[in-house]
Model the fold of this input.
Amino acid sequence: MRTHAKAQRRKGMSFFILCAFAALRAICLSIETPDGFALPQKGRVFEFPRDHGSHGEFRTEWWYLTGHLDGDDGRRFGFQVTFFRQAGRDGASGKVSHLHLAHAALLDAKSGRFLHEEKLNREGWDAFSSATTLDVRNANWSLKLDEVTKRITVAATVKADAVLKLELEAVKPLVIFGEDGVSRKGANESAASHYLTFPRLKASGSVKIGSQEHRVKGEAWMDHEFSSSQLDEGQAGWDWAAIQLKDGREVMVYRMRRTDGSTDAASTLTWIAKDGALKKAAFDWKALGTWKSPHSGGEYPNQVRIESEGSVFELRPVVQDQEQGGSITGLPYWEGACDVLDARGEVIGRAFLELAGYAGDLKRHLGGTQAQKRRE
Done:
């Protein structure tokens, strides 16, 4: 009798555990946007080269390259090449389609000339992003990993004005920002991304402007993010910086801006040590100067001072006008090469500064958390 009772209790406990597991699994599987796109989850196990590739279950994804180049003749250049993938689901059929947007820009510091272009194509013959490795293309622009050499090649043109061809090699290992694989951008759990970065890449190749070609060397930074909602309610945009110091350290910082101009609590700064170790730290971000675009009318605070861990960095733009025009998206933003100065005014590194949401409606493109809230 006693043995039978024990068996019944064990059977009941097993049933309870099974039900609890099933309920937990159902909850995990239901964490998605109202239209069925995945949201970043903690504990994700990243596998490479697969996770260098495209993640079609998420709405938004980008591969973002910025860098500083020096010619053999001493001429200085800044560059940006970015590939975006944006998914949408047809409400009637449920079919998912993908749009591929790309931005390229080249700064010639000597002349002050800033060249930029955008491309937009539907997924297919003209645009593609591999789901198994880093292999992205939009028309004649490309970004590809050689899995044997571990080197990355990037090629882009800027209208008929310039050609950029580079080979990139990681100097430091890939880092994953955020807590347990998730980089939060707001209080709502859906305002988050998986954020992977090569913080320092050795770059070599060529820059051609007009008929003049320059052999170049330098350093680059590559971000890869995928998410389904980057902005939370009450947020207007962000200020972001990738700082590469001469001493071998880097700093990644983003300030999520609220509509009242205040800094959102989800803003973060992360130090990257020489060995690649990450350390989050408190910071203060202060605008020192602004530039008003004659193109969009947006006012960009493009000279800033950042203080953290007893260090002071001033980011000073190499050229004021480094605005991407937003000719296709209607979303102009400032993305520019900067020098990094310490408290004594000495140049201690280089940086790229991004200022988004000062012109155009960024929320319309990267929001979506309000719909998620209503669903919850």
